[in-house]
Amino acid sequence: AAHLMSGGDRVAPLSQVLARAVDADAEAALLQQRIDDERRAGAGMFVAYLASVGALRKGLGVDEAADMCWLLMNPLLLQRMRSERGWSSAAVEDWLRRLFAASLLA
Q: pTM for this structure?
């Protein structure tokens, strides 16, 4: 969760600009798709590791778990909790930690 927060803080402003541009610019849409694909691949590697050590929640498939991680790793989600809902960084980090654990871990 701490890693996501530090990275999210750096890229969230750029993510906001890109999200606004995707409807009007084909290159921006391609870049957003590439970023999403790379984030999903990273989530998949993380979840595959959890599955390999027997830490993935019983009944949860690797693909479903990777999709959950992919969404939770979105810097815009983290930014919105802070800027629009007024959560502190520590509160968002704690929430992510609990959400990841409850959703993914055995």
A: 0.79
Strand partners for 105 = 56
| Amino acid at position 78, single letter | L
Q: CA-CA distance, 84 to 36, in Å (whole number)?
A: 23
- List pLDDT tens digits, range 6-52: 555 667 788 788 888 889 999 999 999 999 999 999 999 999 999 99
Q: How many CB atoms lie within 10 A of CB 69?
A: 22
**How far apart, in whole angstroms, are the C-alpha atoms of residue 100 and residue 103?**
5
9 with 101: CB under 8 angstroms? no
Which two three-digit tokens encode residue 40?
């999903």
